[in-house]
Amino acid sequence: MMKFLLRMLVSAVTIFGVAYLSGGSLLQVDSFWPSAVIAALVLAVVNAIVKPVVKLLALPVTCLTLGLFSLVISAGMLYLVAAIVDGVHTTGFVQTVVAAVIIAVVGSVATSLFDKE
User: Fold this and answer.
1) Using one digit for the tens of pLDDT, what is the confidence trace for 49-62?
2) Is 54 within the bounds of a domain?
3) Number of domains observed in the structure of the chain
4) Axis crossing angle, helix 69-84 with helix 37-57, rounded to the nearest 10
5) How many C-beta neighbours within 10 Å does residue 5 have?
6) Which residues lie across from 90 on neighbouring strands?
7) pLDDT per residue over 26-55, tens digit each?
8) 57-89 residue pLDDT tens
9) Which residue range is the domain that position 98 belongs to?
């Protein structure tokens, strides 16, 4: 349970950090609480439930693009979060892809650091 809460906190900080450090050009978040925290929770649910189904359905396209379509899927999940959560807004396709990549990389690094403990 503690690892889950820590991951959600890191995800919320990353979402808010991407929005804040980019000046809103990659992603726009109204506030850390509740927008970024709720966005982190919704992103976790979307990545756990919706993303595997979409990845399975998009497997032929992903293979044809040598895996690059996974970036589009990640951006789509971030678009879905922005559609669900009030206070989170995307600014464009390329910007959303970049924001999704940054969120995924920071999340992966944080997860690998937490799992070493």
Assistant:
1) 999 999 999 999 99
2) yes
3) 1
4) 140
5) 9
6) 27
7) 999 999 999 999 999 999 999 999 999 999
8) 999 999 999 999 999 999 999 999 999 999 999
9) 2-106
In a domain, 111, yes or no: no
Is the residue at 113 inside a domain?
no
SS (H, E, C) the chain: CHHHHHHHHHHHHHHHHHHHHCCCCCEEECCHHHHHHHHHHHHHHHHHHHHHHHHHHCHHHHHHCCCCHHHHHHHHHHHHHHHHCCCEEECCHHHHHHHHHHHHHHHHHHHHHHHCC
pLDDT for residue 117: 59
Question: Is residue 47 in a domain?
Answer: yes
Are 99 and 25 a contacting pair, CB within 8 Å?
A: no
- Which of 1, 69, 55, 48 minimizes the C-alpha distance to 40? 48
**pTM metric for this prediction:** 0.93
